[in-house]
Amino acid sequence: MATALAATVRPALQIGALVGLDQLARVLTPHLPLALPSNLVGMLLLSLLLSTGLVRERWIGTGAGLFNRHLAFFFVPIAVGLLAYGTLLREHGLALLLVIGLSTAAGIAAAGWIAAWRATPARPPASP
Fold it and tell me: Residue 125, class by beta-carbon neighbours within 10 Å (0-12 exposed, 13-18 middle, 19+ buried)?
C-alpha cells in the first residue's frame, strides 16, 4: 500500500515542482531585458538548476517522463488552431513550408559549424 501511494505521490510532487518552475518563469519574464517567452525562460532555469546540481534529474525525472509520454496531447490545441487558418495555408502554405525548411536547415548548419569549430582543439604555436 505504501509503495502504491509513493508511486502516485512522487510523480505528483515532481509535476508540481515543474509547474512551480513554470510559474516562476512567468513571473520573471516581464522583468527581463529581452523579450523571451516564459516557457523558454522556464527551460533555461531548469537547465541551469540541473547543470549546477541544485536539482538532480532523479528528483523530477518521473514527472518529466509523464509529460514526455503524453507530449502529443499538448499539440492538439495547435493542430486545432491551424484549422482556423486553412485559407492562409492554402494560399501561402508552400511558401511558409519553404521558409520554415530553409530557416531550420540554416539553424542546424550554423549549430553544426559552431559545434565543429568549438570541438577543434587549439593548435600550439609553432616553435621558432
Answer: exposed
Give 29-51 as a DSSP string. Answer: GGGSSS---HHHHHHHHHHHHHH
CA–CA gap between residue 104 and residue 99 (Å, rounded): 8
Measured in degrees and rounded to the nearest 5, phi and psi for residue 82 equal: -65, -30
Q: Which tens digits make up the pLDDT trace of 45-66?
A: 999 999 999 988 888 888 888 8
3-state helix, strand, coil in the chain (%, to 5): 80, 0, 20
Distance CA 33, CA 28 (A): 11
CA distance 117 to 80: 42
Quick one: cell of 71? 507530449
Instruction: Decide: 29 and 41 in contact? Cβ < 8 Å.
Output: yes
Q: In angstroms, how far is CA 100 from the centroid of its own chain? A: 18
Which amino acid is it at 104?
A: T
